[in-house]
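Dear colleague,

Thank you for sharing your sequence with our group. We've completed the structure prediction you requested, and as agreed, I am returning the results in plain text so they can be pasted directly into your records. Please verify that the sequence below matches your submission; if there's any discrepancy, let me know and we will rerun it promptly.
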Amino acid sequence: MTHDVASPVTQPPLLKDEIQQAFIIAYREETELLEQALANEGWQVKLFRNERSPDSSCAAIYCCMMNHRRAWVQAAAEPHPTLIVEADFVPVVGMSSLPLPMDLSQPSTGLCWLYTCAAQIYSLSPDGFAEGFSTSLVAYVVTPAAARCLCGLADWVHKHHGTGYFNFDSEVDKYLRSHGFKNYISFRNYGEHGGIPNPEHRQHGISGIHRADVLAGPLAFRPLYARTGHLWRSRYFGIRLKARLKGIGRLLLGRFLRPKILRKASTPRRMLQWAIARQIVLRL
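Please find the predicted structure tokens below.
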């Protein structure tokens, strides 16, 4: 993982060493496979079902945020960081044995995205932790202090944007950073966004289609988007190939590691090596 290219002073802890519980954010989705996969990794699993009524006037994304808020309230009361995933997350096999890519020795550590969407890297610490940005909350680890802070984000969204459509997960990094937290991204994705596009996103001019650009291992079960039937494998590999090519394209176009950030970096060579190395894998 990160230590292959970042040469950290010490080996990072594994997820299973620091995380005891995993929360699943769901509405009506079937979550049995996900619950079993997370339980097999050794985590205590708790399901947070959206309590939205069918005639609710609230936007679906607002209800999703409030469900995350319920999880944040409980995560804030925990003594250790909490893994939070959405119902359409598909973890890789052996996820709990992967490194925890965030620096828990620092009180300013907030959140780490284990699945990234439109990701960027800001800096690389001597221990190989990549401070960065993502727009999706499909899978992430949050510290108790950051979870407590994120409850304030939900309150801010309600005050300034009401209960209508507002892409709140794009504000997570900005909000936490404004409160003194540093956020991180994993070297490769610890799972896949396996769901189908959200129609609410399309109604507001956003495609809603995003997949992991590069995976840290094979998936624990078949993503929903692969569907069933004898063509599911070709459908799956076609979608994964497109995601890999998009990730490589973002790197080459300077969207994952922006030239301006690279020019100002104290260790630009290490950052560039890290960004390139994460894409050097044959796995789709």
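Summary note from our side: The CA atoms of residues 55 and 63 lie 13 Å apart.

Kind regards,
the structure core
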